[in-house]
Amino acid sequence: MKSKILAEGYLKILVTGGAGYIGSHFVHYLVENKHQVCVIDNLSRGHIESIPSNVVFKKIDLLEFQNLKSAIADFSPQAVVHFAAFAYVGESVEKPELYYQNNVVGSYNLIRAVAELGIKNFVFSSTCSIYGNPNNIPISEDELSNPINPYANTKLIIEILLRDFEKAFGLKNICLRYFNAAGANPNGLIGESHFPEPHLIPLVLFTAQKKREKILVFGNDYETQDGTCIRDYIHVNDLADAHLKALQYLIDGGNSTIINLGTGFGNSVLEIIEKAKKITGKEIPFEIVGRREGDPAILVADNKKAKEILNWNPKFGIDEIIKTAWNWHQNQKY
Ligand SMILES: NC(=O)c1ccc[n+]([C@@H]2O[C@H](COP(=O)([O-])OP(=O)(O)OC[C@H]3O[C@@H](n4cnc5c(N)ncnc54)[C@H](O)[C@@H]3O)[C@@H](O)[C@H]2O)c1
Ligand SMILES: O=c1ccn([C@@H]2O[C@H](COP(=O)(O)OP(=O)(O)O[C@H]3O[C@H](CO)[C@H](O)[C@H](O)[C@H]3O)[C@@H](O)[C@H]2O)c(=O)[nH]1
């Protein structure tokens, strides 16, 4: 059966956090696929230049309920994709109030506005951090939710909120629990740009560029092959594709659900450094230091559900992730 999205040609989609790293890749993907987009972002952590010039942009904070609701009503979207959040684990431990305010209150405002306006389809950026220190690897959606930091707690609260709003208002939703987003658009126009940057792959590439003296490896005494943590790095364009497929699934009548997004393969910190050395041809000095608090040893996705339900298959492997990120970082001025 032909999907309703394809049959009708395009969708009107409202994207929160569309000036951020993952959100902007999704927005570019939507525009490439001829969908009509409105971005809402307060630019607290995003970049206006990451938004394509032909999309509607509204600089609004999710905490301003009335402005938010009127902007959504003006655009009148068929679906909302919600990326906007603060997403630094360390910061959330130091400033939980900031995270509950921005992530929980902001998302509550958005979900309430969407429900009141009668919009029925919602896709939410959740995280594999919700599993905390999981008992089973690879991690399926049946794994116990056991978050171990305020950031992940806020994401679980929003998932629960969505469940309740579906019951009361019929707001169908998919919570996508991403593993480690990485890489950049192969067109070289957008990439990962966080200030400060906490993520491993950009920091490794900064080291290759001599913008940092060395990369600190947080612990080599984990129960893994080389003692360093293993993560499932998923290309940001594969995430974009999964979001569009999730919307398609909801609009075609699919039920609300939770879906992991990862490749199903893991790489250790030392493997990432080694691969980056080969790809960049540069020296990447590193130093082993103590563990970072709250880091689980291994996080690798069981992605069967995404494959079955969304008919999604990640196309980029770890080499393409590092290559596209390197391509982007080499063209940045900072
Ligand atoms: N980066 C990852 O590896 C990863 C993994 C799992 C989940 N996630 C989730 O994916 C989403 C996007 O992550 P990212 O790495 O692109 O983050 P990002 O910081 O690059 O983008 C977030 C965007 O949201 C905007 N924003 C934040 N609070 C806002 C508010 N109150 N009102 C309006 N706009 C606001 C920021 O300005 C920014 O443009 C987040 O929800 C994050 O929790 C990220
Ligand atoms: O300078 C660094 C930075 C990171 N690491 C290690 O590299 C791995 C990846 O760390 P990142 O900070 O890049 O990513 P996280 O796994 O901590 O977290 C990311 O992915 C999570 C899901 O796995 C959450 O969603 C979170 O929002 C997002 O930042 C970890 O083992 C970390 O200990 C280092 O050794 N040195």
UniProtKB/TrEMBL annotation:
Pathway: Carbohydrate metabolism; galactose metabolism. Coiled coil: none annotated. InterPro entries: NAD(P)-bd_dom, NAD(P)-bd_dom_sf, UDP_G4E. Pfam families: GDP_Man_Dehyd. Its EC number is 5.1.3.2. It catalyses: UDP-alpha-D-glucose = UDP-alpha-D-galactose. PANTHER family: UDP-ARABINOSE 4-EPIMERASE 1, UDP-GLUCOSE 4-EPIMERASE. Belongs to the NAD(P)-dependent epimerase/dehydratase family. Homodimer. This is UDP-glucose 4-epimerase. It comes from Stygiobacter electus. The gene is galE.
